[in-house]
Design a protein that fits this description.
alpha+beta; 5 strands
Length: about 170
């Protein structure tokens, strides 16, 4: 059944992402078509971790997101990179937020562009340029410390200091 409201909402999203799609595909980041929402996630090559760009209330986000169903796995993988925050930020060449997302399962490392609004088409070319640039730099910065950590194997219950994580060097993808 045709839903006019839903279809009308999707058209601007598809148009908004149309300049990003070929640029992401040229870089081998995705083979997906433009999504119908305010975010675009792309595979990292590691299970339950994604690269992403999005519009948010504050402006725009470029991120590495850990989204395994088990929050302990996300925390362990995120911690591997958080422990190397200074190196990653140095390689990135700017500010990154290492957000452990309290009260959520996931964890993220993100760059922010404050200001642009999703409906302001005049800003789309600059926003797309920023998304591509920030994704390239974030991916290179994470690669510089060994890459996206692979799956972890907690050896103890949550909160136990004996839990282990695969290091970035051991789990390069």
């Amino acid at each position: 059944m045709f839903e006019p409201t839903r279809s009308a909402e999707l058209i601007p999203a598809l148009v908004r992402w149309s300049p990003f799609e070929p640029l992401a595909k040229q870089r081998g980041w995705t083979n997906a078509s433009a999504p119908g929402q305010n975010w675009w996630t792309m595979p990292t090559g590691s299970t339950d971790a994604t690269w992403g760009v999005s519009y948010a209330l504050f402006g725009c986000r470029s991120e590495l997101f850990f989204g395994h169903p088990d929050p302990a796995v996300n925390l362990a993988r995120w911690q591997v990179l958080s422990d190397r925050k200074a190196e990653i930020m140095g390689a990135f060449g700017g500010e990154l937020i290492f957000d452990d997302l309290p009260n959520n399962k996931g964890r993220r490392i993100e760059a922010r562009l404050i200001g642009p609004k999703i409906g302001d088409q005049r800003n789309w070319p600059e926003v797309i340029d920023w998304m591509i640039d920030s994704q390239e730099r974030l991916r290179q910065a994470v690669a510089a410390v060994g890459g996206v950590p692979g799956m972890v194997a907690p050896t103890a219950t949550a909160g136990d200091s004996d839990a282990t994580a695969v290091t970035a060097e051991d789990a390069r993808i």
